[in-house]
Amino acid sequence: MQIVFMVFTPCLMFASLAESVTFQDIVSWWFMPVNVGLTFLFGGILGWIVVKILKPKPYLEGLIIATCSSGNLGNLLLIVIPAICKEDGSPFGDHRTCSSVGLSYASFSMALGGFYIWTYTYQLIRSSSLKFKAQKTAEEEAFKEPNKDLDTNEKSYLLDNNSQDQLPISVTKSSENLTKACVVAEIETVKGSSWSKIVGVLHTFLEELMAPPTLGAMVGFLFGSVTWLKNLVIGDAAPFRVIQDSVKLLGDGTIPCITLILGGNLTQGLRKAQVKPSIIIAVVSVRYIFSPLIGIGMVKAAASLGFLPADPLYHFVLMLQYTVPPAMNIGTMTQLVDVAQEECSVLVMWTYLVAALALTIWSTVFMWLLS
Question: Mind telling me which residue stretches traverse the membrane in this protein (predicted)?
């Protein structure tokens, strides 16, 4: 699990981007980062609606929003797009050119998806874990420590003083002192809360930005866009091509390892997971009904406004980004933060089973719209 997070995923990001993405591609494909952000935005809104309607357990809220908003924007596209390009009668032209350009689109999509997933989605999963663990700790402490009616000082005061008419005065003074202390503490808290929240948000953003997969994507972008850096590691004549070969070899282990993690979770998830059928149906509906319809509308609107190049394959990839099943990295994240592993495996299982039919239907619809 840690190896996938720290080694395999960054290597996959770097190897794919450094080889297939150039600076000109990044400039001409400027709408793709916006489109990926919109998939997360609309998916997150729909996931939030699902949470508010179905009211799942608190530790499942982040997982549900994550599965609704975070799609498999890389690994699956690397498989689907070349397969479609090789089909007879494909509307995307020569299969060799289609496969080469399609892989570049898929690699760029994978890098963008990795950036959003390891910042936005990872924060969702980690927040749910922190809330769940804090709630669990509070419940354990409340169960262990008995409630105390009186403070130790108050008890000694009652034992040392026989006069009962002094008790109300003492209690009143103690209450006044306690009230003053609470007011002062509250004022100090209000003064420091705004600044502490800002610092906390910036710290969290920087921490997620420095995650190994995100760093791998950024370094891959750098080497892909800067020609002299790319010539150092890419190509038969590159002096440091052994670095690219080694990194690519490590990156190839990402998908099999993630699949093994999901399979291991699934063996426990089918027995221990507490996921209601309504949650599964809601997540499947968001991913394969509402999200693709939104995607068609967004891509058509962007094309009519002149934001997109004329390449139909580019339009197809943009639409497909709204239709893919949840990101497999969500399973890795649940392992890292130790929350909802079994539930995640069950949701992923059902969404990927339905994806076999949904991707076929929607791909046909997209090609019909673009032909």
Answer: 30-51, 63-84, 104-125, 279-299, 349-370
pLDDT in tens, 104-161: 787 778 778 877 887 788 888 888 777 777 777 776 777 766 555 445 554 454 445 5
On whether the CB atoms of residues 103 and 21 are closer than 8 A, the answer is no
Residue 167: inside a domain, yes or no?
no
**Length of the chain, please?**
371
Encoded tokens for 326: 């949840």
Q: Based on the structure, what is the number of domains in the chain?
A: 1
In a domain, 177, yes or no: no
Residue 326, beta-bridge partner list: 71
**Amino acid identity for residue 105 in this structure:** Y
Q: What is the largest CA-CA distance in the chain?
A: 101
- Report residue 286 CA to chain centroid gap: 16
Q: Which are the contacts of 136, defined by CB distance < 8 A and separation ≥ 6?
A: none
Q: From CA 335, how far away is CA 344, in angstroms rounded?
A: 10
- Is 166 part of a structural domain of the chain? no
Q: What is the pLDDT of residues 4-43, one digit of tens each?
A: 767 777 787 777 777 767 777 778 888 999 999 999 999 9
The radius of gyration computed from the CA coordinates of the chain, to the nearest angstrom, equals: 27
Q: What is the CATH number of the domain that holds 120?
A: 1.20.1530.20
Closest Cα to residue 283, out of 363, 361, 357, 354?
354
Token readout for 309 is 């190049």
Q: Each residue of 217-254: pLDDT tens digit?
A: 778 878 877 888 888 888 777 888 888 888 878 877 77
Q: Which residues, 6 or more positions from 278, have their beta carbon under 8 angstroms from its beta carbon?
A: 54
Partners of 71 in the β-ladder:
326
Report if residue 82 sits inside a domain: yes
Q: What is the pLDDT of residue 87?
A: 77
Q: Containing domain of residue 293, as a range? A: 2-134+204-370
